[in-house]
Amino acid sequence: MKYRIPFALFFSATVFGASGTVHLLQKPAMNKTEIVFSYAGDLWTVSRQGGLATRLTVGAGQESAAAYSPDGETIAFSGEYDGNTDVFTVPAAGGIPIRVTYHPDADVVVGWSPDGKQILFRSNRESYSRYTQLFTVAPQGGLPDALPLPMAYRGSYSPDMKRMAYQPLDGGQFAVDGNNFVSWKRYRGGRASYIWTVDFADLKTEKIPRTDSNDFDPMWIGDKIYFLSDRNGPVTLFQYDPRSKKVDQLIKNAWKDIEYATAGPGGVIYEQFGQIHILRYRRAKGTPGAH
Questions:
Q1: Which residues contact 109 (CB under 8 A, 6 or more apart)?
Q2: Which of 37, 147, 172, 253 could form a Cys-Cys staple with 134, CB 3.0–4.6 A?
Q3: What percent of the chain has pLDDT over 70?
């Protein structure tokens, strides 16, 4: 089913959203040609060039936390069907969703493994308190495997899958899928979120440098880690170099927080002001930025 939603696409910072209109487009992800996003409780897809948006799901419950497989052919998402939130997949071109997990606790999609063989999701199915852990499950279903991390909310594999950048805490966020803090802005208390890297060979961890900021939504792209942080004021996009230990701000932001970001082919896609933005990679360096 297709509906006309006014889009204008802005690259580096490229925005979906016509001037003077109200938008509530959330949790975007992209493959090489299309964008999937949440709107009014359903998933929608649209060309990366903008245009006519197609509603991908029509279930009675909410669908969110969509993530494209590395080959761009399949979308994993969290569906609130039959009174419970589980992992589902649907062909990127459209079709009938297939249920992947069957646990009474909420299973929320985080992403995919770089080889496309596993869906990464978070759940509190093995928790004894208010925290989540990361699990992997085959797209065809089966028994999930817990990652060897005591607690984790979001995570992103290194390209060789030997390491991961992950966010242990939810930052006081208890929504099904998002980074809208339930605490006050610029929160600096004990629930402030941070990002670590872990080497799966020996489980050695390292912290991304910070003082007391909220750092979240890690994305491991090439040899760099990208993430959102409020360390300089409104939440915006930063880059961390694990070799030099240097952190750089990529987007100047003096306005509303960037709410959510994830990596895709050719750039980083993020949500701000209820609109969708794409920050494309510099071809010379392979890093996000204007060109």
A1: 65, 66, 67, 76, 77, 78, 87, 119, 120, 121, 177
A2: 147
A3: 85
Residue 217 has pLDDT above 80, yes or no: yes
Q: pTM for the whole thing?
A: 0.89
What 8-state DSSP symbol labels residue 58?
Answer: -
Whether the Cβ atoms of residue 81 and residue 61 lie closer than 8 Å to each other: yes
Evaluate whether 41 touches 32 at the Cβ level (below 8 Å).
no
pLDDT at 287: 55
The 10 Å Cβ neighbour count of residue 247 is 17
Are the C-beta atoms of 57 and 79 separated by less than 8 Å? yes
Q: Which fold has domain 2-288?
A: Neuraminidase (2.120.10)
Name the residue among 194, 172, 167, 193 with its Cα closest to residue 183.
172
Distance of CA 241 to the CA centre of its chain: 20
CA distance linking residue 238 with residue 229, whole number of Å: 7
Beta-bridge partners for 53: 3
Q: Taking Cα atoms as reference points, which of 137, 158, 159, 160 lies closest to residue 147?
A: 137
Give residue-wise pLDDT tens across range 106-134. 999 999 999 999 999 999 999 988 899 99
Question: At residue 224, what is the residue type?
Answer: K
State residue 83's pLDDT score. Answer: 84
| pLDDT tens digits along 256-269 | 999 999 999 999 99
| Domain boundaries, given as residue ranges, for the chain | 2-288
One-letter amino acid at 236 equals T
Q: Across the beta sheet with 163-167, what order do the strands follow?
A: 154-157, 163-167, 196-199, 204-207
Question: How many beta carbons lie within 10 A of that of residue 249, not counting itself?
Answer: 13
